[in-house]
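Translate structure to sequence.
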């Protein structure tokens, strides 16, 4: 059962410091998460704190113990796994931000889901969160850390969501809403295989005629998008990764009106976020007819466009 905690109880605020810790490379696997990550003591005992957990029953296991390591001297801090999926990045990669933002010395050691350099959008978000990427140390080969601190994640997907996780992301101040400023977050310029709602362009045209501003977050930087919506009266659109940007909002007073587009449904994290940050959010689950594709890449057709217009414009 998921929960929102209003304080910092037990394990949710725990910080452990280990000495002589071996961090192997991320191991691609066929488990339900898609990769394995973890750590060992120098004598090969697994350290469960370094696993990635989801839903309480799902977690990674430690990759094979490496034969050779590179030493990281002095004190360091473990950041977690840098995920290249926007939603998982916002939730899991930033799940230890409550602690990382306080630590001003030593390297921050990260595993990477895939061995790529940081994307510009990731650098941008780390900067907004007050983290200096120059301090980052990536596990590109197995390492032996002299001393490493690891904070308990303040969120585990579908297991718990702490209130201080959401408030640690209060990094971009929002302002008093401008009357009549209504933003529709469009997915109509996303790649064709990302899944769509057939009538989305028609909905955008209808809303534009009613004074709405239609924007395409996938074509904007996160900062420019946050600036645009920071004084909006209403923020709406079909469920999409763009909503995760709202996790960075401080004192969001807009009406958030999210519309389910089928496929994977709406992650419960949005409900927990809205509860923790006291955001005026409502979710509509309209009647949909499946057209093609599966999961997040499925395309659907709405039974009624008018119902959508009434919901978001009400």
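Result:
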């Amino acid at each position: 059962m998921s929960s929102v905690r209003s304080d910092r109880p037990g394990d949710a605020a725990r910080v452990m410091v280990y000495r002589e810790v071996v961090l192997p490379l991320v191991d691609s696997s066929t488990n339900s998460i898609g990769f394995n990550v973890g750590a060992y003591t120098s004598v090969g005992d697994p350290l469960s704190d370094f696993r990635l957990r989801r839903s309480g029953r799902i977690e990674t296991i430690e990759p094979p113990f490496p034969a050779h390591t590179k030493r990281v001297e002095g004190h360091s801090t473990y950041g977690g796994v840098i995920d290249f999926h926007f939603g998982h990045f916002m939730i899991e990669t930033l799940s230890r931000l409550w602690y990382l933002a306080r630590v001003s010395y030593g390297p921050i050691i990260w595993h990477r889901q895939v061995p790529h350099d940081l994307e510009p959008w990731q650098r941008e978000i780390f900067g907004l969160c007050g983290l200096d990427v120059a301090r980052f140390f990536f596990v590109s080969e197995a390492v032996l850390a002299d001393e490493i601190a690891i904070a308990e994640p303040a969120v585990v997907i579908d297991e718990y969501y702490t209130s201080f996780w959401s408030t640690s992301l209060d990094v971009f101040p929002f302002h008093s809403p401008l009357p009549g400023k209504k933003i529709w977050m469009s997915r109509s310029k996303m790649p064709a295989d990302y899944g769509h709602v057939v009538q989305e362009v028609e909905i955008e045209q209808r809303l534009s005629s009613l004074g709405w501003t239609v924007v395409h977050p996938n074509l904007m930087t996160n900062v420019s998008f946050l600036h645009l919506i920071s004084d909006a009266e209403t923020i709406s659109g079909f469920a999409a990764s763009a909503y995760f940007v709202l996790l960075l909002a401080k004192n969001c007073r807009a009406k958030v009106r999210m519309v389910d587009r089928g496929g994977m449904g709406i992650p419960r994290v949005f409900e927990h976020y809205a509860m923790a940050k006291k955001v005026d959010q409502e979710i509509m689950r309209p009647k949909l007819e499946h057209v093609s594709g599966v999961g997040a890449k499925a395309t659907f057709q709405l039974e009624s466009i008018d119902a959508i217009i009434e919901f978001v414009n009400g």
